[in-house]
Amino acid sequence: MDFKEIIANKISDVINIDANELKNYIEVPKDNANGDYSFPCFRLAKDLRKSPMDIATMIKDGLVIDGVFEKVDVISGFLNFYIDKSIIVKSFFDKFNANENYGSTDIGKGKIAIVEYSSPNIAKPFHIGHLKNTVIGHALDNLYIFQGYNVISWNHLGDYGTQFAKLIEAYKRWGNEYDLNENPIKKLADMYVRINQLCAEDESVLEESRETFKQLEDGNPEYVKLRDEFTKYSMIDFNKIYDLLGVKFDKIIGESFYIDKIPAMYEVLEKTGRMVESENAQIVDLTPEGIDTPCIVKKSNGASIYAARDLASILYRTSNFDFDKCLYVIGNEQALYFKQIFAIAKIMGIDKKYIDGLEFVGYGMLRLPEGKMSTRKGNFVEVEGLLEDAINRVRDIILEKDNLEGIDIEDISKKVGLGAVVFSNLLDSRVKDAVFDINTAISFQGDTGPYVQYMAVRTNSVLAKVDNKVNMDIDFNILTDESSINLIRVLANFEEVLRSALEKNEPSFISRYLLDVAKAFSVFYNNNKIICDDEKMQDARVCLTYATNKVLNRGLNLLGIQVPDKM
C-alpha cells in the first residue's frame, strides 16, 4: 500500500492540484509523534494565496477520513497523518512477503549504468584521499545493481599526463638508486616527491617533463615500457586494497588507452568550429553555455591534455556501451571541470540520451585529524596500513572480552574493522568535507558501523534460537506495542530510502537509515521477550526480527559491509 499516493489523492480531491506533484512534497517525520506522514502546506501558500495554517485547516476540513487513518492533525502549517496501526502492520508484511528481495525495484530494468570510481594515479600510493571515492563508488555499484541496472564498474587509472612524465624524469635521474623489486610504490612515491621539489627549484626540469610527456604520447618505446612497468607494480598494491574492500571492476582502463582515439575526437570537435587557438594552445570558449572559464583541449606543444582524454572516453563509451547513466565519482573540486566536459560533449553533437545520462557525483575532502594530505609533499596515509590498523584495533577490543569460546576472532576483526572504516566514510552526505577519526569509527557504540553490525548479529542470535525456522503465516495484529509498531514503521521505509539514495546518488541515506533500524530494533528487543511462552506472540516477534535481519544485512551489503556470524 502506497500511503503517500493515498494521501496525495485525498488532498488533490480537496484543492484540485495534481496528486503526483503533491506526492513529492509528502514527508516522513523524524518523530512519529508528528504522524506517520506529513504534508507541508507552506508549499501551496503562493499558489493558493493563503497562509499555511489556513491551507492546512481547509484541507483537513475537506478530507474524507476512512479506515486508513486514525486521525489527521494540523500543527504549525503541517498536515500530519496518523495511519491506523493495524494497516501499517499488514501493509508492511504484505510487501515484505511479496518481494524476496525486499527493497529492490525494477527501476533499472533494461538499463545500463556506468559507474566510474576509485581512479588512483599509477605509481603513487593508494592513500586515504582515494578511500572515500572508492567506498562511495562501490556502494553506488551495489545500489544500482540491486535496483535492476546492468552496471559496468569502471576504474579510470591515471597513467598519463605531465605528472606521470615527471615520474619518468625522476626514474631517469635516480632509478639506479632504487630497487623496485621490493616495496616499489613507496620508492616511486619517494622519487615523485623528489622530482616535484626539483621542479619547484628549477623550472627547466618542469619543461623537460612536459617534453617527456610529448614523447610518451608519440610512442617513445623506452617511456612506454616504463609506464607499463609502473602500472604493473601499482596494480599489485591497488588490488590488495580492492580485495580487502570486496571491490571488483568490470573495466580497468588507463588514460593511455584513449591516446589513439584522441585524433578522431579532435576531428569531431574541429567540425563544430568551437575549437580555437589561444596563446598557441587549443581551447573551447564556453561563454555561450554560461561557463566563463574556457577549457583547454590541446597544449601549445601539440600534446593532449586530460580534457581531451576524458572527451575521447565519452565517445568511446557512447560507441560501445549504449549507457543510460554514466556516473563520475570525483572530488568536489572537479565540479567546474566536468561541467565544461559535459558542455563540450553536447557541443560535439553526442546523442541527447548520453548527454542526459552524464552525472557528476562529487564528494568532499577527507582529512585526518592532522590535516590535509599531499602526495607531492609526501604527507599522506596509505589505505592498506589504515585498514590493517582498524582490523588490529578491533582485534584488541575483542581480546579484552572474557568469553571467547566459539568466536572466530580473525573473521570478526576483519569484517568489523573494515566495516567500521567503510561505514564512517559513508555516514554523512558525500558532498561534505569530513575528518576521519579511527577511534570514533571502530567504537561499538554510537552512530558507527560496528553498532549496526552488532544489532544485525543480535538478530542472527535470536533466529538461531528457533533454528532459523520462521512462520510467516500468522496474525500480525497482535504486534500492538509501540516499540513493535515503531520498528515496523522504520522497516517499511526501506524501499523509499533506497529509491531516494538512487535518485540522489547518496549512500549516506542508507547508512543513516540503518542506524534508525538498529536503534528501533534495540528498543524492541529490550522491551519485548521474543522467545516466550505465548507461541503466537513468539512467532510474530520472530517474524519481525527476521524482517529486521534481512533489512540490516541487505543494507550493510549495499554499502559494501559484511556481517560476522557473532560479535
Question: What features would you describe in this structure?
Answer:
This protein has about 575 residues and is an alpha/beta fold. The chain has three domains: about 5-85, Arginyl tRNA synthetase N-terminal domain (Gyrase A, domain 2, 2-Layer Sandwich); about 115-265 and about 300-365, 3-Layer(aba) Sandwich (Rossmann fold), CATH 3.40.50; about 390-560, Orthogonal Bundle (Isoleucyl-tRNA Synthetase, Domain 1). It has 22 helices and 13 strands. It has helices spanning about 5-15, 20-25, 45-50, 50-60, 85-100, 130-145, 160-175, 185-200, 205-215, 220-245, 260-270, 305-320, 335-345, 350-355, 385-400, 410-425, 440, 450-465, 480-490, 495-505, 510-525, 535-560, and strands at about 35-40, 70-75, 80-85, 110-115, 150-155, 250-255, 275-280, 280-285, 295-300, 325-330, 360-365, 365, 435. The strands form four sheets. Strands 6-5-4-10-11 form a five-stranded parallel β-sheet, with helices on both faces. The chain has a three-stranded antiparallel β-sheet with strand order 1-3-2. A three-stranded antiparallel β-sheet has the order 7-8-9. Helix 7 packs across helix 8, helix 18 (about 450-465) packs antiparallel against helix 22 (about 535-560) and helix 21 packs antiparallel against helix 22 (about 535-560).
